DNA sequence: ATAATAAATGTAATAATTACATTTATTATT
DNA sequence: AATAATAAATGTAATTATTACATTTATTAT
């Protein structure tokens, strides 16, 4: 900020206090539907209500660090893809205190999360279309995060963070169909995706969902570029 | 947030306090270059340093309202286009206090701002390429806001907020050339822009910059759609 | 009447997107 | 051993969007 410190008219003294929290919108993909990790409050008030996972920001960490701390606490995972969504600052959004929240959305490989930790925290994976009512403005946060995910997916190869290291083309097509909530033509989808040159094909087939089996691919981070990734349809 | 209030183990009590500010990155366009409104601190410390315009968020307002309040204070304008950029929360970003800032960028019609108010606040319009060093992380905020503006301009018809109600096609082309920092082909630019069908042509010519004169257009808010507005360059 | 200036315009070549149906590899069944 | 079943893999033609590129037009000043 811009004004004097350690002065009589200090802008830093006696400011009306606002609490700052971080809430995480955690997406996962189980090869069928997009899912969200939410948890059930085990203490009063609002015991039994579903909520996003959050925390107040601490003195010694920035918002990003706070988000990653929460993600590690609840899933055991580090190096998770996480980006700031937006802030939520309505005056009365939290009836208990004047508290603004920085929403962060994260994409994780659902099969890699530590199930014991998740259970210990009373957290559950919900399909997005079966998501229960959440506390405060958390449903709005989820809606905003989904919009952001769609917007990003149109223009950049996001979503690989939701897939295992090796994945098949039908798998990633299903993911995109889930994100956009529409069927995609497999010939056009594959043509587009492969033309972007950031997938490396392996000679290994995954036969878990067909007799023929589908080749496994991996994301080639070397080759990821700015080239736009525009799905208009 | 998710935890108990008015309880012994309340999450709302004794939280380490964080101040929350809003800083505004205010863009304008003078028909030649993109400009930014910054102001010169008139009090110690850092007297004479250039700074974005900001304020602490108040108890009775959300971040958006705080931003609009600042914009009104400094320019006299209401109903300004303003969007949240991102938060800045590095632990030591402000040596005077633990203070996070919510960056908001705004687009204003430079000719409409109240010059007396602007002067009274010690504010000046700088061309982006002549921008001085700003306090704290404000230069980073400007950089991020410019990136965002570019990104948005590629995909949506942003930028009309920077132009007067009636503007010419050469004028808007110059604006886009400033945003993208590259020359655009006028035939292709006009073809694309007009094909999107959200400009209404008037029969009035603006002769301020040529003998022939250029027709004035206005933005047709009715017709603005989602259609993408992609300038690949 | 002429020169000067910036605005307005068109077309052909290339690239990207869309729409659409058949063949292939494999396993399970008979 | 042959057949049925299943999902994966593939190609092409039509349409649409983008790019590259130069001349004409309207007006004012000389």
3D structure, described in words:
The structure is a homodimer of 233-residue chains. The first copy, chain A, is an alpha+beta fold and 233 residues long. Chain A folds into 2 domains: 19-152, Nucleoside Triphosphate Pyrophosphohydrolase (Alpha-Beta Complex); 163-219, Arc Repressor Mutant, subunit A, CATH 1.10.10.10. The first copy, chain A, is built from 5 helices and 10 strands; from the N terminus they run ββββαββαβαβααββ. Chain A has helices at 63-75, 115-120, 138-155, 169-180, 186-195, and strands spanning 19-29, 34-40, 50-51, 53-56, 81-88, 99-107, 123-127, 166-168, 199-206, 214-219. In chain A, strands 1, 2, 3, 4, 5, 6 and 7 form a 7-stranded mixed β-sheet that branches. A 3-stranded antiparallel β-sheet of chain A has the order 8-10-9. In chain A, a hairpin with a 7-residue loop joins strand 9 (199-206) and strand 10. Mean pLDDT of chain A is 90; it is low at 1-9.
């Amino acid at each position: 900020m811009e004004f004097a410190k350690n002065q009589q008219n200090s802008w830093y003294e006696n400011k009306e206090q606002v609490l700052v929290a971080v809430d995480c919108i955690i997406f996962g993909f189980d090869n069928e539907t997009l899912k969200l990790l939410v948890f059930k409050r085990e203490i009063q008030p609002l015991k039994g209500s579903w909520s996003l996972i959050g925390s107040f920001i601490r003195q010694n960490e920035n918002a990003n660090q706070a988000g990653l701390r929460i993600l590690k606490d609840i899933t055991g995972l580090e190096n998770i893809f996480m980006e700031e969504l937006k802030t939520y600052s309505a005056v009365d959004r939290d009836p208990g205190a004047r508290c603004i929240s920085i929403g962060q959305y994260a994409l994780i490989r659902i099969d890699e999360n530590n199930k014991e930790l998740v259970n210990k925290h009373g957290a559950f994976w919900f399909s997005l279309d079966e998501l229960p009512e959440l506390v405060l403005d958390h449903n709005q946060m989820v809606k905003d995060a989904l919009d952001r995910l769609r917007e990003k997916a149109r223009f950049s190869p996001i979503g690989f963070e939701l897939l295992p290291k090796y994945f098949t083309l039908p798998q990633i097509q299903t993911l995109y169909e889930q994100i956009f909530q529409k069927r995609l033509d497999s010939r056009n989808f594959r043509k587009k995706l492969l033309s972007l040159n950031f997938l490396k094909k392996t000679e290994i087939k995954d036969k878990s969902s067909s007799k023929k089996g589908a080749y496994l691919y991996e994301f080639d981070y070397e080759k990821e570029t700015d080239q736009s990734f525009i799905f208009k349809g």
